[in-house]
Amino acid sequence: MTTANPLVLLIEDEPQMRRFLGATLRAHQYQVVEAAFAPDGSVVVGAALNVAEVPIFDAASGELVAALRISHPSNAARFSLPGGCIIARWLGAASVVRYPTLAQLIELAQAQVCRELTPAERTEFGLAIEKSA
Hints:
The chain is α+β, with helices and mostly antiparallel strands. It is 20% helix and 32% strand.
């Protein structure tokens, strides 16, 4: 019987450190799920490997506040700076959710609000832009 590789939740705001830690953990056969704090520190967004949603947790209590439905499971979720946008990605796919305020984001959590990323958004989140052959 084979067992799944251990799962690690990675929360790191510094992009270089997040890339280093993620690559190191993956090289050691860990499954890595990335989460991030909102710019104001009030909530944390996570990722779900087996479910197509992004959980939103209250940073102070750790309680689940809402879950955004997206088009695919994800292994990373991040906020843009200074806020107003969440991105969730998995391999080559990415979903973006734009929101005016965190309160409105939570209200939108039950709506399907995903779309493909624009090239500018892919650059904003440090995702490689795929070149067509």
